[in-house]
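QA checklist item 7 of 12: single-chain prediction sanity check.
[x] sequence parsed
[x] length recorded as 276
[x] structure emitted
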Amino acid sequence: MSYESEWRARFGEDSEPSPDLPDVPWLHRVLMRRTHRRYAARPVPEGLLRLLLGAAFSASSKSDFQQASVIWVRDRGRRDRLAALVPDMPWIGNAPEFLVFCGDARRLERTGEMRRHVNDNGTLEGFFNASLDAALVLQTFILAAETAGLGCCPISVIRNHAKAVAEILGMPEKVFPVAGLCVGYPAATGHISMRLPLETTLHIDQYDDRRLDEALDAYDRRRDARYSLPREQQRSPELFGHAPFYGWSEDKARLAAQPEGQEFAMFLRRAGFVLD
């Protein structure tokens, strides 16, 4: 079975892994997945959402510690306050459902207190483990939701407002937001975001990025041929000027040069993490 058309849609090139592979419908779906920011008015059944959350919490977990929690934001007032933090993303307030996926290092500490085995889970290891657990639950939820016909949009920018998010949602110490997630039935098809080729993201036996420059240049050209960013969408021209060719690498380099989340470490320390 060939995945040629899906591979081309995702990576912009024809070099699929092999033309003779078993036909797995779910793999076709994942390769063609899209992020959705516009949703139909159709509500998401509560039972379906709970089923999807059950599937999400079935994800792998470090040492079976299960250090992820989800806050399902159903109260309109709280949702509006969250949406007001990021006014340029109206889908936060407009999506039929909004979930906040959290790293939860608190529950393991409380479990230890119950069993009189005290542990300090505010170390870097505790934070890292809880972050990974939350990310695994988030991605598993997204894949499960898409299989059920829903569309999702992760909102990582809420970490830029971690203190306010924690106050709105009543997060105690050792609990922190990893990402929000808009959920609903898609109102439009959406587009497939072209990804970096495996030659830049897959390394055999040892890390090797000696050909990164030429690989990124080729990727920029393939991506631009599909959806070119107009001059008016070039990021921060007052700082960087206008580039004659504006590809993915230029856009992301400009974005990374203006870092976000500078207050997140301070928030974590106030939430009880020492990060040592």
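[x] summary fact logged: The chain has 13 helices and four strands.
[ ] second reviewer sign-off
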